[in-house]
Amino acid sequence: MGVNGNGQYLATKQVVVEDEENDFLADFDLEKFLWVVRRSIIWVVLIFAVCIFAVFIALRYVKKIYQSDAIIQLEAKGTAPTLGLGIFKDESSINDYLVGETEFIMSNKIKDEVINMLDLYISYWIQGRFIDDEKFNSSPFKVVNYEVTNYDFFDNKKIYLQMLDSAHFALSYELDDAIISKTYRFGEKIKDENFNCTIHLINLDIQNKYFFIFQSHGYLQSYIGQNLSVFPMNVKARTIGIVFKDANKYKATAIVNAINEVYLKKSIDNKNLTNKQQIQYLEEQLDTLTLRLEEYDAKIDAYKRGKGEANNPLNLEPTLAEILNGIKTLHSEKMKLNDEIKKYKDVVNFLSSDSSYQLINTVAMGITDGRINQKINQLEEAQKELKRISESYREPSFALQQKQKKLEEIREELLELISFNKFRLYDKVYQIDVEIRKLENKIPNGASDMDLELRRLNRYYASYENNYNILLSRIVELGIAEAGTVASFQVLSKASIPQVPIYPVRNTFYLYGFIAALGLSVAVIIVRYLLLNKITNLKEVEKFTKAPILGMVPYYSKFKMENSQLVVNINPKSSMSEAMRSIRTNLDFMTQKQHKRIISVTSTISGEGKTFVAVNLAGIIALSQTKVIILDLDLRKPKIHLAFGAENFNGISNILIGKATIEECIKKSEIENLHYITAGPHPPNPSELIMSNEFKDLIKELHQTYDLIICDTPPVGIVTDGLLVMKMADVPIYVLRSAYSKKIFISNLNKLISANNFSKLSVVLNGVGKAGTYGYGYGYGYGYGYGYGYGGYGSGYGYYDDTPAPTLLGKIKNIFSKQKAEKDA
Question: InterPro entries this protein is in (predicted)?
């Protein structure tokens, strides 16, 4: 790395990375990759099946989430423009206004009203095998008059209920790792050490098990806040979206509609708050003035009675008597009107406190407007009908919603009618006061002292009455303003019951499953490709070594062999025989000027098929009228005697130590020109024996009789004995086995060539065509300019082929043919 260590190091590292990338691209074998893909199809199918099944299970058992939403549009109604400029100056002010309203809708004030309106303090559930389902407004039982004394029973504590019959049920819960279970009657007051309540039966359901949960106010506020979304949708259109998500679609819809109703009520109440406070104050002052007027009215009557007959209005002048009688009559009518106004106030107070409608009807007796009593009766009937429907339906129904809406409409109509009648009565009282003042002004100036005292009392009375009329007029004005106030928004899209969940989305889940399956499949294929470190085809051998390819040997599948055997003589037209002929031809090209040859056959490790190749190559050469002898030089682990089914008493080791002659050890095979010498007893020094002069003399003597000597040597990756023979051989053959030999064995082959100068070392790929290999063909041309071998197997000659195995139909035909031939004979 030198002086400029950092820069030099980085440059070197970059070059190394680029080389690695180039090596990877150069090492990538498309044919091999496609073969891995084909071999992985069953895994790919399995992965896709598992992923699709997993998606199916997820869609079936994952908790579904529904979304209900509504859209409201804010308007300028109910608010007067300032200086004629309107409410909003620009779009920014509109946006600020919308943001403020969204914050108000999401405030705890709205949440509290919604919680109380829908009575969310108890949630009812039906226990499922995998997923529990909330029964919002559809539970077959109702918990009332409850009180939780143990705060651990809030929010997460499940209290299970199992109906036993129409009168009894079992209640159970877990406490301190113990199950507490008791039996109660429906309608009976339950007094538990942790909670008190009463449970009423709505519908009998013995098959299912239910549970309910007490929920704290804080939990419900958090629950609504987490699932509620309020946001400005269109600033210019002044629209706000209200969205609520929940696993129960009926609950989500009910909460959104409740938010709309509460927001409507709060919006109007906030706008009328000032008017209500003023009206309340004025009514209090009006009550005080009413008392003062009644007081002075009583004084006037008492004064008249105290003066006796002389002061009887009948003795007065006719004009004065008529005036006083008229004033008295008007005062009587005014008292009746004030009494009716008071009854209206009592009815409104009872309605505000949610009192019994029957009690309200009693209070309303004496009100002259029969429509008031009619509306109260309608309210009572609507309340009874709503209760009946809520107890009959297990799920929130359209009928229930309509009844609730109808009840609220009747109540609003009643309040509007009362408000209208109150202001009408106030107006009548005002008109009566005007008439009284007119009559008082008609009293003659020349009246007696009694008339003057009466006039003084009437003056005080008139003063109070004037103030009374002023207050009454102001109340009428404020009432008219309040009656004209409307909500500053309208609901553009009311919340409806969603039919399709927003989670899980079926198509999205299947898309995720497909992507996951595709990713896993690609990963499996890539991993299998990277882990495939064995030689699978001839191209890999060609790619990593410059050693000439002598040929390929197909995998022999006619029968299972425990040990290598001579098979080329069984069926001369077989693919095995043809592959050996191709290797024989290539050997002839390589050694065409040599008459006496030595061929060594070795491999990297045991099991690659060197003995099988040696035996069958010798057999196919011997069939061409060439005298061949096989020497088993694998003195540590001999196999030749097993290939020919012979004994291994005398062999190479006996000859080299002088305990036996060559003639005594040579054995004949089934092929006329093929002989072999087994390894003999295992010697303590195999390498020394092969290096000895006796071995060289053995080779010279065998050359006098045989044209070709094939030496089956030990694997060179294990011992060095094979190298000694390879140096003596005219053609060293290195056997690799498809789908068995590792790619690193080719590196070992290259080292042998470079270190020992084996220029004629050739490669034979064995076991081609077995399951786990690809890209093969039999017969491979020798590429040194000596010519080429035979064409590839499968499309070569056209008349050399394996005898096809008889089919079942063929076997049946053969049986009948033999029977027919026997009959003909």
Answer: AAA_dom, Bact_polysacc_biosynth/exp, LPS_length_determ_N, P-loop_NTPase, Wzc-like_C
Backbone angles phi, psi at 763, to 5 degrees: -115, 135
**Residue 291, CB-side half-sphere exposure with 13 Å CA sphere:** 5
pLDDT tier at 794, thresholds 50, 70, 90: very low
In 3D space, the residue among 594, 819, 809 whose CA is nearest the CA of residue 708 turns out to be 594
Average pLDDT value for residue range 179-198: 92
> Which structure tokens are listed for 672?
């006329």
Spell out the alpha helix ranges (H) of 28-127. Answer: 30-39, 41-61, 91-105, 108-118
Look at residues 81, 44, 65, 213 and name the one whose alpha carbon lies nearest to residue 131.
65
Alpha helices in 307-448 (DSSP H): 318-352, 357-363, 370-392, 398-441
In the prediction, which pLDDT does 361 show?
A: 54
Name the CATH superfamily, with its identifier, for domain 548-560+573-799. Answer: P-loop containing nucleotide triphosphate hydrolases (3.40.50.300)
* Residue indicated by tokens 């108000």: 104
Whether the CB-CB separation of 800 and 770 falls below 8 Å is answered with no
The residues facing 554 across adjacent strands are 768
Q: How far is CA 346 from CA 213, 286, 339, 351, 415, in A?
A: 39, 16, 11, 9, 12
Segment 186-204 shows an average pLDDT of 92
CA 68 vs CA 225, 242, 262, 450, 498: distances in Å: 15, 8, 17, 79, 6
Dist CA 587 CA 621 (whole Å): 10
Q: Are 615 and 623 in contact (CB under 8 A)?
A: no
Q: How far is CA 641 from the centre of its chain?
A: 66
| Segment 122-142, tens digit of pLDDT | 999 999 888 899 999 899 999
For 301, residues 6+ apart whose C-beta sits below 8 A from its C-beta are none
Q: Greatest CA span in the chain, whole angstroms?
A: 184
1 pLDDT band, cuts 50/70/90, is very low
Task: Tell me the HSE value of 184 on the side-chain side, using a 13 A CA sphere.
Answer: 20
Give the contacts of 441 (CB within 8 A, at least 6 positions apart).
none
* Cα 461 to Cα 298: distance, rounded to the nearest angstrom: 10
Distance of CA 768 to the CA centre of its chain: 48
More confident residue, 281 or 564: 564
Residues 637-684 have pLDDT tens digits of 999 999 999 999 999 999 999 999 999 999 999 999 999 999 999 999
Which contiguous run of DSSP H or E holds residue 148?
A: strand 141-148
- At residue 783, does pLDDT exceed 50? no
**Nearest one of 491, 632, 524, 582 to 789, comparing CA atoms:** 582
Q: Using CB atoms within 10 A of its CB, is residue 595 exposed (0-12), middle (13-18) or buried (19+)?
A: exposed
Alpha-carbon distance 404 to 684, whole Å? 107
**Could you state, in order of their start, the residue ranges of all structural domains in the chain?**
27-62+506-532, 66-262, 274-493, 548-560+573-799
Q: Residue 81 has what DSSP assignment?
A: P
Buried b (16+ CB within 10 A) or exposed e, 528-547: ebeebebbbbbebbbebbeb
Instruction: Kindly report whether the global pTM for this prediction surpasses the value 0.70.
Output: no
**Sequence-ordered list of residues with C-beta below 8 angstroms from that of 175, at least 6 positions apart, any chain:** 194
